Structures are given as C-alpha cells and as structure tokens.
Amino acid sequence: MSDRPFSFETRLLHNNQKFDPVTGGVSVPLQHASTFHQTSSGEFGKYDYSRSLNPTREALEEIIAEMESGTRGFAFSSGMAAISTAFLLLSQGDHVVISEDVYGGTYRMVTEVLNRFGIEHTFTDMTDLNAIKQAIRPNTRVFYIETPSNPLLKVTDIRAVSTLAKQHGAYTFVDNTFMTPYLQKPLLLGADVVLHSATKFLSGHSDTLAGLAVVKNKKLAEKLYFLQNSFGAVLGVQDCWLVMRGIKTLSVRLRQSQLNAARLADYLSGHPSVIAVHYPGLKSHPQYDLQNQQAEGAGAVLSFELESEQLLKDFIQHVKIPVFAVSLGAVESILSYPAKMSHAAMPSAERESRGISSCLLRLSAGLEDPEDLIQDFAAAFDYALLPVQQGGLK
Ligand SMILES: *Cc1c(COP(=O)(O)O)cnc(C)c1O
C-alpha cells in the first residue's frame, strides 16, 4: 500500500486543528482574552498577551503555514497590513523591484509611504527577465511579485525571479492572493515571503477583512514575528475564525469558480464587442505555458477590454448577476472597474501606460451557474449595443 500523504483537499479539513483537544469540539474555539494569567513571577506561560500570541490566531497561522508549505504563518488585520508589515523588513536606503501592475494599495504603500522612509522602488515588467535585471541596483533587497497580476493577469516566473533575487542577496515576496496555495505554492518555487489578502478566496464570502503572511526560513520567521508584534496589526479572533471556516471549503469553491471563469473567458473571447480577454487559462495568453508549469490552474479572475467606455458604462448598467464592487474571490461573482476602483490610487497616465485602460473590466467568477452568467452578459451586451445600432435611441 502506498503511504502517500493526504492530499491538499483532505488536509484543508484534517489538520492539527481538526478538533479542540480539550473538548473535542469540531471547530477552533474563540479565545477572546486579551491577557493571560501567569502562575509565577519568574516564568511566563506560552501565552501572555494576545497581540503577541493568541490561541485562535495561532490556529489560523498554523493552517496557512501548512497550506503554503512554510514553517510559520502570520495573521494580520488586512491584506495591506500583512504587506506593509512585510515591507518593514526593509530599512532606509533599501530598494524594491516591483511588478508594474501591482495591487493599487501596494502601489500606494510603496510610492507614498515607503518613499518617506527612504526606501526606493523601481516598477518593472516582471514578465521580462531582462527588464528585471536592468532594474536591479546594489541596494535592491526585495523583488515583489504578484502573479497573475492585477488586473492584467500577467504571469511572472516565480522560480526565475527567486533565483535572481538569491544571486543578489535579496528576498522574493509573492502576493499569492489570486491563486491561493490550492493552485500555487510560491515557497516551493524559491520565494521567501508569501502574502495574502485573505479577504478574498481564503475567506471567500465577502464578509471578512484579513491578511496572511507565510515564510519558510526560521530566521526570517523570527524577524517577521518581531515586526508583527511591534507593529501590532494582528487579526482579531472572530475574523480568524471566519477565515478558518472559509478555508475548509476553499478547494470546492475555487475549483467551481475556476471552471466558471474559463467558460466566461471563452464566451467573452468570441464576443465582437470585446477587444481583449486576459486570462492565463486561454491558450492565447502569452504566459499560458508558464502558468501551467508553476500553478495548478488559471484561477477564477479574468479581465476584458471593451470597444469603448460608453459600452462599458451601459454594460455595467444592464448586467444583473455579478455585484459591481471592488474585491474578488467570493462565492458571488464580482465585476469591478479597475480604473475607478482597485487602481484609482494610480495617476491616470501611469495607469494607461501600464495597460489598465478605461475600457477594462475585471471579473471574479463566483459559484453561479455559468450558463446564467453568460445569458446575463449576453443580454447586457445586447442592451448596451441596441441604441447605437438603432441610430441612437438615447
Ligand atoms: C485585496 C488585495 C490586497 C489588499 O488586501 P486587503 O485585505 O484589502 O487589505 C492585496 N493584494 C491583492 C492582490 C488584493 O487583491
């Protein structure tokens, strides 16, 4: 008989947190205490104060560490809190090489906060290894990757960038929000720090704000723990619990959402009013092969460009099923407008030059029947196109 380890799907449920060792309860107990009674003046117990360590948060931190094949996980009050705390590994005078179509909040942190502390950055096309090499400076300490990127779904070679980073004595940070460890495990590809907005697929129900970080190197884990405790942007226990509950169904949710995204990408590719579809699951995607090598799938997020901004406005007005909102990775489909939402923090000239046009929409596929979504989209396109074709009803 083979004694292969349980698969990822099974371990989402059957891990160290399967039941509470004290009561047998099949759910991690909520430990609301902010402080813990100590029994002697000389020696303190494992827990003393909840910012430093809390048993409920610790359970989530163990789960995400195991999922990402890391040694230690950290839970933060939001994705941006996780990302910002990880950036505190840098010091004045250091330099970051970063994906040019990075999440808008990360862009803001790097360009408007870190710069005030003397931390420099260079945005670069991370799909182009030569461009990355040109961006390197003697003080480069971090290579920051989002793959697939937001919102253009460009794919970066995690292994190649991590190798380059090691040659320069720098860390590789990977924002793994779009893939989750179900589809991609950056630490196994050489990355040093994995970051998540757990607000998205990991929680999965548009009802929690949370961030996670995972590392594999024990020294780096100590440094990040020190920063988590110093900065203090930890995740509250109720939210830890919600993230843990979301994680239990991650694989079934993401598998179905991914199927739906693929169906919609096909449909949109064939629509005459859609001029481009960005989805790494399409054979026409420039990094289709790379995505297949480093990840187990293309995920559930895609973006598409329409013929005109007017069409985009009319389409949004008439589409019924997806919520029109920021965010992604939920049970319901979410349609968003990067130019005015996730990337509103980016000056419009910068944004356009990065290919994030005013005609681009991003879709995070949820769990609806994909045929309903297609029918809804088709009707919205028909409606949006109607006045023009009939000589301007409006
Ligand atoms: C949402 C998001 C973030 C920020 O996370 P919050 O939980 O909103 O703070 C960071 N990176 C990516 C890719 C995201 O989608």
Short description:
The protein is an alpha/beta fold.
Q: How would you characterize the overall build of this protein?
A:
The chain has 394 residues and is an alpha/beta fold. The chain contains 14 helices and 12 strands. It has 2 domains: 240 residues, Aspartate Aminotransferase, domain 2; 140 residues, Aspartate Aminotransferase, domain 1 (Alpha-Beta Complex). It has a 7-stranded mixed beta sheet, with helices on both faces. Strand 4, helix 6 and strand 5 form a beta-alpha-beta unit. The protein starts with 7 loop residues before the first helix and ends in a 5-residue tail after the last helix. Bound molecules: pyridoxal-5'-phosphate. Pyridoxal-5'-phosphate binds next to helix 3.
Shape category: globular
Query: Which architecture name of the largest domain does CATH use?
Result: 3-Layer(aba) Sandwich
Largest sheet: 7 strands, mixed
CATH superfamily of the largest domain: Type I PLP-dependent aspartate aminotransferase-like (Major domain)
What's the average pLDDT? Answer: 95
Distance between the termini: 70 Å
What structural class do the secondary elements suggest? alpha/beta
SS element count, helices = 14
**Spatial sequence of strands, sheet with the most strands:** 1-7-6-5-4-2-3
Uncertain runs: none
CATH topology of the largest domain: Aspartate Aminotransferase, domain 2
Q: Class of the largest domain in CATH?
A: Alpha Beta
